[in-house]
Amino acid sequence: xxxxxxxxxxxxxxxxxxxxxxxxxxxxxxxxxxxxxxxxxxxxxxxxxxxxxxxxxxxxxxxxxxxxxxxxxxxxxxxxxxxxxxxxxxxxxxxxxxxxxxxxxxxxxxxxxxxxxxxxxxxxxxxxxxxxxxxxxxxxxxxxxxxxxxxxxxxxxxxxxxxxxxxxxxxxxxxxxxxxxxxxxxxxxxxxxxxxxxxxxxxxxxxxxxxxxxxxxxxxxxxxxxxxxxxxxxxxxxxxxxxxxxxxxxxxxxxxxxxxxxxxxxxxxxxxxxxxxxxxxxxxxxxx
Length: 288
Description:
Elements: E1 2-3, E2 15-18, H1 20-24, H2 33-44, E3 48-52, H3 61-64, E4 72-75, E5 80-83, E6 89-93, H4 98-111, E7 116-121, E8 124-127, H5 145-148, E9 160-166, H6 172-183, E10 188-191, E11 197-201, H7 207-217, E12 225-229, H8 235-240, E13 243-246, H9 252-257, E14 260-261, H10 269-287
Parallel strand pairs: 1-14, 2-3, 2-12, 3-4, 12-13, 13-14
Antiparallel strand pairs: 4-5, 5-6, 7-8, 7-9, 9-11, 10-11
Helix pairs in contact: 2-10, 4-6
């Protein structure tokens, strides 16, 4: 792996795919002026920018002003593609079937007693009484996961985007390894929190697989994509993209998956690389 200042940058990427929390956003959840300028410069140069995040569409206000022409974002670890120009309307959903979600809940309850669950529907989140207090969605239903995943309640007919599984005592990576060991053939497991909080998606659903679908619709190859991330839920995307950067603050799994490394999110690591890409384009234009 090379650093942001050592690795040659591609002069002609067609798409930049960036995670948000711990990557594009600073720790205070803001987008710096430098990063705003870099994103605008990329779009001006004809490079599409896709935000690819574990966040649901309703939590995208922090960056909705910085999505330019296309207006799209990949949310919920690839389970949804949202149009941020249209209030976060979901254009594509790759859901988790409720019977599979129930199987996973039962398997994790047995393998890791004390696990509590939340269910992220296309219409909002709902959670169990023992799940860590959730203040961002005051209208959520509080009930056991078996009831939350019942076909009739809550949000009848709403697709399940992901199930969240929290354990108050296990180490985060140990919990992830356990879950993949007992139920990895039923669903996709990852994590993005510093706590033992797992994110469970449908089989084959990841940031990378949905990004690949979006790129294919645009005739963009993996080689033409530059990706940024910091946590295990970014690993597949960092591995798939032709050029990828783990943040200076990244989890070891993200560092191992990326082809390069930039500085931390608080040091505007994404902007550092974008600025180099724009500068390289300008240099080659002058050379020609």
